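Chapter review: from sequence to fold.
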Amino acid sequence: MSWKSFALAAGLAAATLSSAFAADMDMPTKAPKSVLDLTWFIVNDNRLTYAYQFTATSPGAADRTAKQVFAFTHFDVWAYGTNFINLELLKSDSRDPASPCLPTVGVANNCAGAMEFYGLFRSTFGWNQIFNTKAFSVGPLSNISFIVGADGETENQFLAPNKKDVVAGLQFAFDLPYKGFFNVSPLYYQEWNHNAFLTPGFVPAGFTGLPDGNTHFHPTWAVEINYYMDLGFLPESLRYFAVSGRAGFYGPKGTGAYGNYTIPATNATKMEINSEPIRLTFDASKAFWGPKYTHFVDVWVAYRYWENKFGLDDGNPANGVCFFANGVNNKSCTEKSLYSGVSVKF
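The token string follows.
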């Protein structure tokens, strides 16, 4: 696969998300003598996206909320690997109100909707490129890479999440038909966060709570997956479509308590699944302006599934974030939402 076609595919897969993960590139196995030999990156892809989630959720909110999403994504290839950055600003409606308002079950209010920022980066270092070999290209396996990254998230709602995490591990990159790829990354995962419901005023008697609500979680495992494939089997007149997707699985990470502070065991986290299993992309610029403008303007629709958001146990009635005092699930800790948007390359 050529760098150009793979870069387009990787750029599209990168745009999937709150969560997208950088794709390894089918780069030449012989790198330049020095990184300084490259005037610029081999590939430099930047995109702006506007998207709309119809039935999103936010832990601690009382109802489904629509979210507008404004995103910037950057993807580049250099001599020894790739870099991916995704920055998102998400605006909820009033059913996910900004602090100090508290949500009311099933009722809209006059409060401003919460604003959330999410940032993510992933960098890969290809073994074929580092060791100047083709030994890690066998059959459908195109490369093995070291991968490192970090996430950051904050939102001005009452829960006041303030997520920070780091990841490190390996990425196994496989080729798919029609200029496609499938990447799997087993990872080490470490997270820190914040939960206002764990401060002393909210925890039951007999527990100290966390004085500032800041949680320190145990290290755990993670697996991140992403894929992309053009629908090249379609007739020539319809070859404007591609499918892509991603999924992240993050293991249980404890309760978040640390030192001598105590919180209920009901705050124990569960495995988190953050995914966009499928996205259908229409290459509008190619369809209307010709192949020269391939993937300059993409229109897409996707399905998002996010279970146990931030590890919060959506199935535990004693959980004070996912359930209200009456023991009824507020459905805020698992998200099932149609998701659609437009991405423009610049």
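Two observations follow directly from the output. Residues 1-36 have pLDDT under 50 and may be disordered. The chain has one domain: 3-345.
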